[in-house]
Amino acid sequence: QAKRAGRNTYRWYTSRLIRDANHRVALRNSLEQAIILNKLQLHYQPQVNCQDWRFSGSEALVRWVEPERGIILPGEFIPLAEETGQIIRLGAWVLEQACRDNRSLIDAGFTHHRMAVNISPLQLRQPNFADTVRQALDRTGHPPELLDLEITESVLKADAQQIVATLEAIRDLGVGIVIDDFGSGYSSLSYIKHLPATKLKIDRQFIRDIISNRKDASITQGIIAMVEKLGLTLVVVGVETEAHAQFLKRNHCDVLQGQLFAHPVPFDELKPLLTKGPPKLEQDPESTTPTL
Ligand code: C2E
Ligand code: MG
Ligand code: MG
């Protein structure tokens, strides 16, 4: 009985593997079509500057738009694109499109609006990646100092020296380097030491419980202090509640991004959103000076 169940499980498992393999081939081919047929779209999520409580820039987040399936999120196709190598072309398209869109915002009067673009480790490992960045800037006329490239800690896993050289060449162009998902890896501190970063971005998992969990609050405060000492800028993503925003603002975090302020939107909805600005916070009781 148990044996038969085992065999059935095995059979189910192999057929599933085959199905998945077929599925992956199909997915790779349709991603190819999506790239060719311009079915990729960039959405933008604005970021709030804590100093003046204005939107100071946005992060470009790629979407795959299929008429029947709707919007496919990057978590579903970026890993595949990395496996097949399609990420190189996809990533180059994202970079240039984000620069082009931001250039048009800058021309429309949002003169200081920054653009953050996610870069895959595979793109960074291309020996000529700094040239790709320079070309995107040249072709779109985007000011280098308003562009930030977001990289993850995993970039240093292979050939650290070459990666650092590439990042330094990009820094020399005037472009900012953001360490994304900071704290989620195992050797975060050595990354800060070796990478020519200008910003650190901590993600949602870290700040989710800062209100209820003393430890999480202390870690976040520690990161904020470290970032300040290093002369870097701290961005926090995944800000969902007013309490989060108040805690982070009170603790002198630099830039906030999250659903509390705005979801990622298509480019044609970005300008009105930026014009309207972020919602004001309710009065923060802990930040008011006590009356004596
Ligand atoms: P990420 O770079 O860490 O981007 C932040 C993700 O958090 C985005 O998910 C964003 O929509 C989501 N997010 C922002 N605020 C909140 C919030 O308040 N609550 C919650 N629950 N989520 C929030 P998205 O758009 O699904 O992107 C997922 C990941 O895919 C990105 O994580 C990034 O690593 C990758 N990605 C997106 N676009 C690109 C791209 O053009 N190239 C590459 N290589 N990767 C990309
Ligand atoms: Mg990012
Ligand atoms: Mg993240």
UniProtKB/TrEMBL annotation:
Protein name: EAL domain-containing protein
The EAL domain, residue ranges: 24-278
Full-protein positions shown: 469 to 760 of 898
